[in-house]
Design brief:
This protein is α+β, with helices and mostly antiparallel strands. Helices cover 38% and strands 23% of the residues. Strands 4, 5, 6, 7, 8, 9, 10, 11 and 12 form a 9-stranded mixed sheet that branches. The chain has a 3-stranded antiparallel sheet with strand order 1-3-2. α1 (7-14) packs across α2 (18-26). The radius of gyration is 20 Å and the shape is flat.
């Protein structure tokens, strides 16, 4: 094996996709150097980095994390955690933040809706790459309608994601580590558009309700988010993607009393009624195992 590996050689050795390793290198999360426009990886430093990741993972397994659900914001989850009295706390940010909290052991579970662009699968590929040697389980929270949030009557006649790139259009976007942002980047790419072609508001929304609020208050002409938040403010909605929203946690933490209390509540008539009132949710698989690694 060479002392210095190319991107392809290092990705093969680490059993990662080239794209995943490229992102790690670009974010300076893995030892690498960019020389002449190419990424190069020193093997010995990479071996030490891999050993450190394994040690960190074992340490996270040994410690009991706090009873926090970190990651993506969802209004039904927000309501159910409070209403059920399960004892969990929410730390909303983005799906990638939730995954990072699982890796470093600062959260019991991650709320995620990350769609893999290659396979179309939700959450499992990202968990496999970030926690490859740990026993993880994904529990379906709900399927959700994700799409375009628009003012009443849709005055700009926006019907597709590609319409968001119209000159002069003000669009409410999410922070870069949010699952909605990751999905929108992918959808724009499918439409042969770049993120820079969309006129986003200067400050990204940190939660789903902030996207809808920006449209409702006239600060944005459109936003990308979930049907439930559009309906809560009497806004128009154009569905684009049906996505699976999961709670991801280590397998042994699935049996934690707080988690079981929340999952029991998802089987109650009150929970189903709330989802119906919010709109945009499909609960047919709620509480079932989406993947078991």
């Amino acid at each position: 094996m060479p002392e210095v590996m190319t991107l392809r050689e290092a990705a093969s050795w680490l059993r990662l996709s080239e794209r995943s390793l490229y992102e790690l290198a670009r974010q300076r999360r893995v030892p690498a150097a960019q020389i002449g426009g190419k990424w190069l990886f020193p093997r010995r430093q990479l071996e030490r980095w891999l050993a450190a990741q394994a040690d960190a993972g074992l340490e996270a397994e040994r410690l009991d994390p706090p009873g926090i659900v970190a990651g993506s914001h969802d209004p039904l989850l927000d309501w159910a955690v409070r209403q059920s009295g399960c004892g969990l706390a929410l730390r909303a940010g983005g799906s990638l933040d939730g995954l990072a909290a699982l890796v470093d052991g600062t959260a019991l579970a991650a709320a995620m809706h990350l769609r893999d662009p290659d396979s179309g699968a939700f959450n499992e590929p990202a968990v496999r790459e970030s926690l490859p040697r740990q026993a993880m389980v994904g529990i379906v929270w709900a399927w959700r309608d994700q799409g375009l949030i628009l003012p009443p009557g849709n005055p700009q006649a926006i019907t597709t994601v590609a319409d968001l790139a119209r000159p002069g259009l003000r669009v409410a976007g999410r922070q870069k580590r949010a699952g909605s942002h990751v999905l929108l980047v992918h959808l724009l790419g499918e439409a042969a558009l770049l993120l820079e072609q969309v006129g986003f508001l200067p400050t990204p929304a940190m939660a789903e309700d902030e996207v809808a609020a920006a449209v409702a208050e006239g600060r944005a002409d459109a936003g990308f988010g979930i049907r439930a938040e559009a309906g809560a403010r009497g806004l128009d909605f154009v569905p684009v993607v049906r996505e699976r929203f999961d709670l991801v946690l280590r397998r042994r933490h699935y049996f934690a009393p707080e988690v079981q209390s929340l999952l029991r509540y998802t089987r109650s008539p009150e929970f189903a009624a709330r989802a119906t009132r919010l709109g945009g949710y499909d609960l047919h698989a709620a509480g079932t195992v989406a993947f078991n690694l």
